[in-house]
Amino acid sequence: MTDVRFIKGHGTQNDFIVLPDADGDLDLTEQRVRALCDRRRGLGADGVLRVVRAGALGEPAAGLDPDLWFMDYRNADGPAVEMCGNGVRVFAHYLVESGLVSPGEFAIGTRSGPKPVRVDVDGIVTVDMGAVRVGAPSTAAVGGRAFDGVAVDVGNPHLACVLGSAEDDQAESRATLLADLDLTVPPAYDPTVFPDGVNVEFIVPVEENLAEMRVHERGVGETRSCGTGTVAAVAAVLRATGRTIGRMLVDTPGGRLTVTIGGDDSQLTGPAVLVAEGRLDALWWQQANLH
Prior knowledge:
- Belongs to the diaminopimelate epimerase family.
- Keywords: Amino-acid biosynthesis, Cytoplasm, Isomerase, Lysine biosynthesis.
- By secondary structure, this protein is α+β, with helices and mostly antiparallel strands.
- It folds into 2 domains: 4-128 and 273-288, Diaminopimelate Epimerase, Chain A, domain 1 (Roll); 133-264, Diaminopimelate Epimerase, Chain A, domain 1.
- 19% of the residues lie in helices and 40% in strands.
- Helix 4 (171-180) links the parallel strand 10 and strand 11 (199-207).
- The longest helix is centred in the C-terminal third of the chain and has 14 residues, at 227-240.
- It is globular, with a radius of gyration of 19 Å.
């Protein structure tokens, strides 16, 4: 076989390996995804974005225009996942930079359905994330301490925990609490509420329309940013303050994102960066499937 082409990119330091594979020829196994995302034996990333035509992917893209570019997203631990907000932004930026689509507005296929995007000339990408569904209260635990949260569906499952409010006088202590959380291990959660695992967000409102957030992603660990998680966190903050719609800026460890939530839709806006491109050694690709 020939070497496999790759591109490395990130959205607010949530980083991805992009694999161009228009005709779906790559045998992208879970073993290969884990090897690619390993930061010692591979390239290192939070996930893999395979660029494939919907018609070449088969069942996951059923019902979509076969010529639509489909984001075949895999978490760092290997499995295919429904949706990734930052991943869509990087994916869209790659499509424009590679000349596969023109700048402006277009749609990308995902396992959560088609996602309209807008790519501006300055590299800022806005994704229509669709409806946000806020569910029942639940609890996450870190280091033996429980945090009240709420289930949020953004095409994938989230447990968003709001630490206080912007109106109280404990913002500094809450920011310290956020910084001191040990997210090197997965937060505990109720598996009866989240049978397929869950992304857990901890968010501190700083001002009425500004918050800080950290996130532990299922199958990955703590990441520098999470697009769907940011949308989920904003939905939880709005609910905690008696609102259902609004616009917020969210500072993650990897940078700032803007979230707008309407009655039946939501948008995520932020930068997308392509860092490098190259080719994977053919022998490495073959052997990566053995472990």
